[in-house]
Amino acid sequence: MADWKRGLRRVLYPAYEARVLRRMPDNLPKHVGVMLDGNRRWARAVGRDSAHGHRAGAANIEPLLGWCDEVGIEVVTLWLLSTDNLNRSEAELAPLLEIIEEAVASLADARRWRLHPVGALDLLPASTAQRLKEAEDATRDVDGLLVNIAVGYGGRQEIADAVRSLILEHAARGTPVEEIAAGVSVESIAEHLYTKGQPDPDLVIRTSGEQRLGGFLLWQSATSEFYFCEAYWPDFRRVDFLRAIRAYAQRERRHGA
């Protein structure tokens, strides 16, 4: 992009963002899920390796959370690594996990947000799972935005884990199999999800132009609104976020009715 265009955008976008923010309706989402997609494609586009793309993506997380604070979001779920991603080559997976550990530790050190890991932590390397748990413990008393860190996360895995947890809970009490089966309900499964006790996401944002869920919050997003953005995650800007929030506020939610 020509330098004069970049300069013009630097001048015009802050004014445009301020106008969008001033005109934002009151019916804003309380819980936003974000699929941080496109790091590797962004890296290829700039002629760098995947690790460079993942680091650029990690650097964009804290600004996003600041934008969420700005408009009053209460819960954010960030999908950083799926269960399918765990099948990537060791040469790519090892640096990616290291970048995630560093990013989560940095968020914890900021002491601005309450972090909560969601995912099958038992599928992760012990060091990564430990760093996630430490970040949760270190921010447990923070009175701020609740941030779900989805690492080793898959929607089908979550539902399977929830049903397994429900069965084991009843089995520990000696409940007969027939009674366990009779007690399985939408409500009882929801009580065993990684996000139990939280509101379901009102809005799910996916970057990079992909228009699919890919297993993200399958149970919780039954009535969510979706917003797909063409920008790769490292290029996702405040103006893109505000447009997503505005698009959500302009929709008439039917909740399946």
Secondary structure layout:
Blueprint: H1 3-22, E1 31-35, H2 39-45, H3 50-59, H4 61-71, E2 75-82, H5 90-110, E3 114-118, H6 126-138, E4 146-153, H7 155-172, H8 177-183, H9 186-190, E5 203-206, E6 225-228, H10 238-250
Parallel strand pairs: 1-2, 1-5, 2-4, 3-4, 5-6
Compact summary:
The chain is an alpha/beta fold. It contains ten helices and six strands; from the N terminus they run αβαααβαβαβαααββα. The chain is globular, with a radius of gyration of 19 Å.
What does it look like?
This protein is α/β, with parallel strands linked by helices and 257 residues long. The protein is 49% helix and 13% strand. The chain is built from ten helices and six strands. It has helices at residues 3-22, 39-45, 50-59, 61-71, 90-110, 126-138, 155-172, 177-183, 186-190, 238-250, and strands at residues 31-35, 75-82, 114-118, 146-153, 203-206, 225-228. A six-stranded parallel sheet has the order 3-4-2-1-5-6, sandwiched between helices.
Structural key phrases:
257 residues, alpha/beta, six-stranded parallel beta sheet, globular
Shape: globular
Overall mean confidence score, pLDDT: 92
Total strands: 6
- Poorly predicted residue ranges: none
What is the count of helical runs? 10
Query: Helix amount, in percent?
Result: 40-55%
Provide the β-strand percentage band: 5-15%
Spatial strand arrangement across the major sheet: 3-4-2-1-5-6
Structural class: alpha/beta
**Order of secondary-structure elements:** HEHHHEHEHEHHHEEH
Our measurement of the CA-to-CA distance between the termini, rounded to an integer number of angstroms, reads: 46 Å
Cα-based radius of gyration, to the nearest Å: 19 Å
Give the biggest sheet: 6 strands, parallel
